[in-house]
Amino acid sequence: MNSSKKTAVVTGASSGIGAVYADRLAARGFDLVLVARREDRLNALANDLAEKHGINVRTLVADLEKEADVARVEEVLTRDDSVQMLVNNAGVARLSALADTSVDVSLSQIALNIVSLTRLTHAVLPAFVARNQGTIINIASVLAVHSWEISSVYSGTKSYVLAFSRGIQDELAKAQSNVKLQVVLPASTATEIWSESVSGIPLSALSQDTIMSTENCVDAALAGLDHGENITFPSVDDENLWREYDSARGALFAATQTGKPASRYRLS
Of all helices (H) and strands (E), which one includes residue 180? Predict the structure, then answer.
């Protein structure tokens, strides 16, 4: 499949952050491949965006917790050379103490938040590198750098997204590639992920002044992308906080490279 226009693939596109990304990228002239589980919502969004922006929109109904459905999206990413952007947005939060959580619930979060994101990045990156052009946006969470007593698995999956993305960013930088990878770390955002049936916590239970709209979240993230940011916290005003955090992380890592036990652990 070829197109004279550029195409963006957006996962988790039927609502929330994914739907807003789809709208904003369509406004920037991208054709779209929208991926999500809910066919009725995908089709309604596709029709709306095609009419509003005059672009081509394809839909792909897929549950990215399932191997076969991930494979169908991989095929689009590997065979359609018009694809110039991948937004890995699909994800789920199921928040509860680990002792009260079934292993199946934990594994479903890992399948969607880690496995599918990794596979889709694997699928698209070689072509981007070969063409020396393309953008990957991985949606993590501020819980990538913080854990609650109810977020051990979710925080773990989002920490993976951050670490995975940073490794690729270093890989691209060392190769002096023009391919971009941005990782976005939203805080509480007004999406359907916050419901008792999904996360276990309704949006109404959160402090309302901490909740960002999906529109503001995506617009801030895209502004960060335009400014060349690799790491974007849409709600953090003082960018020095990240620099200080990352500097401390780097200093801690450097301090591990001694090849001998710390003095406090040495036996007398």
Answer: strand 180-184
Task: Please give the domain boundaries of the chain with CATH numbers for all domains.
Answer: 7-265 (3.40.50.720)
**Of the candidates 148, 136, 151, which has an alpha carbon nearest to the alpha carbon of residue 230?**
136
User: Tell me, what DSSP letter sits at residue 265?
Assistant: G
Examine the residue annotation and report whether 160 is marked as an active-site residue of this protein: no
Distance from the Cα of residue 93 to its chain's centroid: 13
Q: How many CB atoms lie within 10 A of CB 266?
A: 8
Under 8 Å between Cβ of 29 and 6: yes
Helix (H) or strand (E) holding 85: strand 83-88
The helix (run of H) or strand (run of E) holding residue 220 is helix 214-226
DSSP helix, strand, coil percent of the chain (3-state; round to 5): 50, 15, 35
What is the phi-psi region of residue 211: left when phi exceeds 0, alpha when psi lies from -120 to 50, beta otherwise? beta
Active-site annotation holder among 154, 160, 245, 265 = 154
Model pLDDT for residues 132-179, shown as the tens digit of each residue = 999 999 999 999 999 999 999 999 999 999 999 999 999 999 999 999
Helix or strand (DSSP H, E) at 73? helix 67-79
Amino acid at 156: G
Report whether 123 contacts 74 (CB < 8 A): yes
Which token pair is 172?
Answer: 């691209």
pLDDT per position as a tens digit, 104-135:
999 999 999 999 999 999 999 999 999 999 99
**CA 77 – CA 8 distance, rounded (Å):** 10
